[in-house]
Structure formats: C-alpha cells, structure tokens
Amino acid sequence: MAKLTIDGIEVEVPDGTTILNAARQIGGEVVPPAMCYYSSLKETGGKCRVCLVKVAQGSGKDPRPMPKLVASCRTPVADGMVVQNITSPEVLEARKGVVEFLLLNHPLDCPICDQAGECDLQNLAYEHGAAHTRYEEDRRTFDKIDIGDKIKLHMTRCILCYRCTYVANQLTDNRVHGVLGRGDKSEISTYIEKAIDNDFSGNMIDVCPVGALTDKTFRFKSRVWFTKPMDAHRDCPKCSGKVVLWMKGEEVLRVSARKDQYGEVKEYICNECRYDHKNVKDWTVEGPRHIDHHSVISQNHYEKIDLQKLKKEVERQLVFQKGKQLPEPNNALNG
Amino acid sequence: MIEFSKEAKAKADQIIGRYPQGKQKSAMLPLLHLAQSEFDGWLSPEVMDYVASLMAVKPIEVYEVATFYSMFNTKPVGKCLLEVCQTSSCWLRGSNEIVDHIRRKLNIEVGETSADGMFTLKTVECLGSCGTAPMLQCGADFHENLTVEKVDALIDELKNKKERSSYLKSLVLNS
Amino acid sequence: MGRKLLLEHINEPGIQTFEVYRKKGGYSSVEKALKTMKPDDVTEEVKKSGLRGRGGAGFPAGMKWSFIDKKSEKPRYLVCNADESEPGTFKDRYLMEKIPHILIEGMITSSYALGAKTSYIYIRGEYMYIVRILEKAIEEAYANGFLGKNILGTDYSLDLYVHPGAGAYICGEETALLESLEGKRGNPRLKPPFPAIAGLYACPTVVNNVETIAAVVPIINMGGDEYSKIGVGKSTGTKLISASGHINKPGVYEIELGLPVEEFIFSEEYCGGIWKDRRMKAVVAGGSSVPILPANLILTTAKGEPRLMTYESLADGGFATGTMLGSGGFIVLDETASIVENLYTFARFYHHESCGQCSPCREGTGWMEKILHRLQNGHGKKEDIDILVDVAKKIEGNTICPLGDAAAWPVASAVRHFRKEFEEAALVHAHKELVA
Q1: Of A24, B13, B155, B175, which is most buried, counting CB atoms within 10 Å of its CB?
Q2: What is the DSSP secondary-structure string of A210-223?
C-alpha cells in the first residue's frame, strides 16, 4: 500500500495504482479530467495530456519533485508522494493550454452534434477553456463517413484518443479500422471503404469521448436532455444485457451501455442489445438511470434524494476545502 | 492476385528471418520498401494486403504503418521522384531557387507529376546532407551541392532513364 | 591539431574494406574485449571514459548500459540508433559511409558488454545506399569470424542486422525507434518502463547512437581512463561536429571537446570562417532542436568567458544566454539570413515530423508553423509574436516525448534573442493595413 496526498488530501491505495485512480478514490474536484484514458481498456491513456498533474514530491524515500508535469493516468503512485492538481497554478495553466489545443481544429458544431449534452470535450471546455479562440487559421476538415450501417464517423470532431482502436483490438478479433496518417493529418479510418462488422463494434460509440463516433440509429432523433435514461436489462447470451434505454415517452430512441461517473463503461454490450431491441417490451426496466446532477441530461429528471449520499458529499467537500487551504509544504517544491 | 518476383520473394523470406519467431511484423518497413520497388513505386491497397499476408498480420496494421512514414507513396508517382530538401541548411544555401527552377522547368507544382509521367516533384525535410547543401534525392542517390546548371544536367540525364528510380531495387536485389 | 580517434584513418584508400580496416588496427577492441575482458569490465571502461551519448541528449553511456536488466531471463538487445534526422546533423552518415567497420566493430564489442546475442542497426530509410555499405561490411565481418557463432573461437556469438526506417524523424526517439523496429507506427512509448527494462519485444534493450557505439572502439583500445583525459571536465573525448550553413568549409570535423567555438568557426582547420566575407549573425550549435544564439553569445558566455565546444560551456547561462551541444549539428547563419524564415523552416519541420499521438505537439506544431508562415510573408501581426511564444510554452514539457521541447525551444530562443526581427516582419502587415 502507498500513502500519498493529492491537493492536500491523504489517500491510501495499493501499490501500482495510478495517480488518477488514487484521485478517483478521493473523488470530486481533485480528480483530473481524462479524455483518452479508459480504465477497462488496456494501454489507453497518456495521449491527450488533460490529466497532467504536478508531482511536488516523488516519494517519501526520494522527495525530489518530478521535473515535468506527468500524465496522472499512467503514472503509478509511490509512498509519500505529494501530488498537486487544482492547487497547482502550473497544472491549471498547462491544462488550459491542452484544452485550447484540443479545440484548435474542433468544428465547435455542438448545436448540430448528437453528442452535445454528454460530451466530455464540451464539459472540459466549459471548465477549463477560454471563451474566445486565438486561432485564426483554417480548421482541418475531413469528410463524414459511414463505417458500417450503424456508425457515423465525423473525423473533424475526433481528438485522437485512440480508444475506439483499443475497443476493436481488445473486444473483437478483427480490427479493420485504425489511426492512419501522421501528425495533425492523422485520422481514424478503415483506409479502403470497409464496414466494421462484428458483434461488439457498437462499443466504439460509447467509448468515444466526443461526437466523432455516433449511433446512426439515434442520429438527430432528439437532444439527449429531452430523453429519459432508464436502467434496463435482458437475458442476452452474448453480453451482460445491462443497458441504459434512452426513452421519449414509451419509445426507445437509443440503447447504450451503462457509464459510471467518469463516463466509462465497465460492462460492454453487444450490437444485438444496442440496435435490435428498440421495443421497451424486450427489456426489464429497473428504474431511472442516475446521471450526475451537474449534467444537462439530469435537467427535468427528478430522482429521490439520497440523504446519506448527500451528507457524504458535503463532508467530502469540507475536507477538500480544508485541503485546498493547506499551506504549501515549502518553496522549493513550488518551483 | 499480385505476387513478388521469385527473387524478391526470396529476399522477403530472408528479411523475415532476421527477427525472432513470432516477431515477423518487424519486417514491415523493409518489406514495404521491397514492395514499393517491385510494384511501380507506390503501395496500392492490393500491394499492402499482400505484404500483410506475408507477415500474417491484419491489413489495417499495414495501412497504419504505410501512411505514417514519408517514404511510402500511397498514390502513384512519376518514374523519377525528385525530393528536394528544404530545411534550414539547404534553405540557407538556396533550396528555394532549386525548387522554383524545377517547377518552371517541368511545369509542375510541388506534389505534382509531369504530364509525361516521368517526374514527380516533392519537397522533403532534412535528409542529412547539410554540409553539401542544397541537395535532392532521386531513388537512393543523393545529388548534392546543387546549382541550377547541375539540376538541368540531372534532369536531362534522367529523362532517358528506363528504370524507375527506387530506394532499394538496384542496391539490394541486384547485389 | 586535435587528436582523431574515429576519423584517424579516414583518408586511407580502401578503408571501407575489411582488409584495409583490419590492417590499420581494426577489430582489435573485439579481440581485446572477448579474449581478455569480462562483459562487465567493458562496461566499466566505458563508465570510466566518461563517454556521453552522442545522439543529442548527452546521457552518460556507461551508466545507461549499467541500467540493463540483468535479472531478466529474456534475451537482451543492443540497437544502434542510426536514424540521424536532426536538421544540421550528418556526422553519422559520414562515419558509416566512410568507415563502416568502426560501427560494426563497436557493435560487436558493445553487444558483448551487454550480453546481446542479436543486435540491430536502425538506419533512416533515406540513407538506403548506406544500408548496402553496412551490409557489405557485416558480410565481411562474418566471413572473417567477427560475427556469427563462436566469435574468435570464444563462446560468444552474435548476429547483426541492418534495419531501414522509412522517413520519420520521430524514430530517432529511442522508444519510437523500437516501435518502428517492431513494425509499427513510430509513436513514442510512455515511460517508465525504460528500454533497459522493457525495450525491443519487451526485452531489456540499450539504444545508442552511431557515434557513441563507434567511440567504444578507441575507449576499449586505449582504456577508459586514457580516453577521459581528452576533453574538459565532464565533456570527455572527441566529438564529430557537422558544420553547415554560411561557412567556407562545411563538413564533418572530429574535434577534441574543449575546442574554443571561435577557433572552430574561424580557423582554416575547421569551418574556415564565414562565406563571402560576410559577418556571422547567429549559430544553431547542436542541431535544430537547441536554442539559437546570436554571434556574440556563441563566441563568449554571458560571463565574458570564451565559449568552448563542451556540453557545459555551451549550456552556460541556461537558455537565457546559453544553448546545448546536442547532436553537434552546427548551423551558421550570416548577416543576410532571416531569423524569421530560418525559424519557419524549423517549425515546418517539427510540424511535418510530429507523430500526432499527443495533443500539444500534434496541434501546437502546426499552429506555430502557420503563424510563422504568416509572419515571414508579411501577413503577421505584432500580437502573433506573443501567441507564438505562448504556444511554444504550452507545448514545452507537456508532451510524451522530447519532440515537443525540440519544437518549442528554437521558437522561444529565436524570439528571445531576435525579437526585433519578428517585430519588423509584423510591421510589414501593419504598413499594408495603413496603406489600404
């Protein structure tokens, strides 16, 4: 086990845990954002750089600070480590820079994007972005293409997190798409027109943090915040059958896997559950899906307030505020 | 279905043998060079699929690699690919004039192929010929300390060439 | 006249062949190492020599070797980084073309020290004609019993292969090189683990530059202590410098570290001064990635001391007034050269070579190129200069590999030392606006 502090809050985690996952143990504001890391997909992370944090003290044994900001999603903790996330102006400045880079060539077409309302980039930009762009040049463009009859690829929106390629590698045995080209000309593509055709391909949609891969069967049907997400399940021989039904009245507009508070799917679903059971009668409905109350999706959705949970959240906030006010350990660590 | 010549196939097998068992994907770049030399100087999807089959990898793994490296052409090119270096040292010694001269002489823009299919003009980044700048590469040959006159002489010479310029062929297969 | 350790026999007719190379004392380091030394003794000599990586980073080579995971049961690999692509650098090409056997010899001696049974030379694809030269040298070494099974009758065996890249500067970064050698895109890996623990095929691996490996030959021949006496302080031995740009005698020179920069640029033995009787404006001392310095600072440190060709002296003053020895790619700009346009060629280079894996470098390098393109074409504004510096700052230190830093440093230093030129470039735009 390793004991470390993140923004002044102490946490103890098993050796080998990453800084990001240690921060998730604490929860709340100290958790760095993550656009490319995905805990259920091996080898993800390290690429988008939004989760950069400062390691002000490497470990108890070797208290030297790490020379550069590190990707918290891929850096393991050490006993006695001191991490600064939102208490480090340097981190916030770097993150602001990364968000600007991610948005540089993004079309900002949220008003016509199906992902709007549940888009990690939108949330990130809201939290860390600037209201204006300093970029005067033409934005990079790509044609939209169909990859298979169920998935639309808008490459202009892609932030090259690579998650969808890991899904294809790790969930299926025949990856036909990948990252082609180099530098800012890189793109997700099948190269020659090819349908992505396997039982689990639909999960590419769920892991995509932006609107680059969207469900064609849901395309332009509704803004997500006008739908009612319901947990439901069915007996499925191929997958867990645990899904979220995105409903409007009695109509099932979309079926997706269940995402946790960090937007991650832990149990992937098969294409049959996703595309072929749009009738509510096919499902055992469990009840409303809990969506974070900050999300636009939870507007107009009323859930019973869990007082225990609320109390815990308030306590956590208090500890957090205290942590934020802790004096900096010493000047040498702030350099 | 396309296939390597007997000679090239033997070379391909030899190349694959340089890497440990199960790591035959390591032969990717040398095999793509070989394929580009064998099949008209560029890598069509069909050629890439063939290379994938030699290493028993998925075609997408080859597409990903072929589109990453600047020496691989995924579109057809002229018989002689003129690659003019334009980075600092070459620029300091006049590479812009060399590029302009070739453009005018062949009546093509950078990235284009002359109407007769003979020449493609490309600008490239530092080729490690800074001390003999400006330079251009055609096939495996470096043409260095270029002047406008030297370029004229080179193009006149290349015009009559029957063989396609290649990074590899004459060096490896005929040795 | 400085001592020549690598280029001593460069003018010997036929030195490319095994026969002549051997006659001139070649392969004696292999004999000495395999017959009289244990592998660790070889590493010890390299440590004693103080040899620092000649690819650009300058990390102590012996220490790098000692990190190799000896507890692992997996095979170990030595991979030579011959992906020389740093603008302004062509020394490895020169060495491999002129004296290929010194690299082969260094590879054998070094592989023996590391316990590698298979080693690779990863050479940039554009140097394809050198692939042939190296392969010929390797064939000769096999034929004469210096490669293959039971070298010189000892129980040490080694196979050595040349592996061509295919056009990607990023593959000079050691983990990108290993990815590329595994037949993948040249995307740098996240570290740790370092190659010494999990490198090629996840096996313990050392990646060393051509010149570093070649330097092992004289080190073993003369002994590490003797080698370390050449040079100044922690900059020991000789270094190949690639000299280019506006000088009278561009080329590759072997210098003893510690040579005054002024002597290197102006003496007849080396660069022979600035061409066309012009004055020197600026120098990029270690390949495009290092900060550019104006003439006065390259000759004299901020403290007023003569600048020397050493790792320390060139870095004196930090990035405010100093630079780095880097790969030894020495580019000289005369008084007529435009700093803005020179920087534009660098920015275009890094944009072209960014692998695109992580966002600051993928997006930032293109942005910098576009701003510089505007500035040098008279379409840039004064505010662009600050944006440029800010973008460089936001890339620096925030990427997976050092390419981000390499793209940022030239920008920051060019504006730091030559801001006026950027402002003048921006004035063109302001003037156009006024006239319109």
Answers
A1: A24
A2: STTEEEGGGTTT--
Q: Kindly state the helix (H) or strand (E) to which residue B81 belongs, with its residue range.
A: strand B80-85
Kindly list the distances between the CA atom of residue B52 and the CA atoms of A303, B33, B49, C200, C237, in Å, as whole numbers in the listed order. Answer: 54, 13, 5, 21, 46
Beta bridge partners of A265: A259
At C210-228, the pLDDT tens digits run 999 999 999 999 999 999 9
Tens of pLDDT, residues A72-91: 999 999 999 999 999 999 99
Does the pTM surpass 0.85? The reply is: yes
Average pLDDT estimate for C394-404: 97
Q: Kindly determine whether residue B63 and residue A178, on different chains, have CB atoms separated by under 8 Å.
A: yes
Q: What is the mean pLDDT of residues A28-33?
A: 94
Rounded CA separation A41/A264 (Å) = 10
d(C-alpha A74, C-alpha C360), whole Å: 17
Q: Name beta bridge partners: A151.
A: A215
- Whether residue A323 is predicted with pLDDT greater than 70 in this model: the reply is no
Residues paired with residue C395 on neighbouring β-strands, in sequence order: none
Query: Are C168 and A182 a contacting pair at CB < 8 A?
Result: yes
Q: What is the mean pLDDT of chain C?
A: 96
Q: Which residues have C-beta within 8 Å of that of residue B109, sequence separation ≥ 6?
A: B103, B121
CB contact under 8 A, A180 and B61: no
Q: How far is CA C159 from the centre of its chain?
A: 25
SS3 (DSSP) at B121: strand
Q: What is the mean pLDDT of residues B82-92?
A: 97
Confidence label for A331 from pLDDT (cuts 50, 70 and 90): very low
Tell me if residue B18 falls in helix, strand or coil.
coil
A132 in contact with C, Cβ within 8 Å = no
Band the pLDDT of B170: cuts 50, 70, 90: low
- Residue C403, min C-alpha distance to chain A (Å): 12
Contacts of C107 (CB under 8 A, 6+ apart): C78, C80, C119, C121, C160, C213
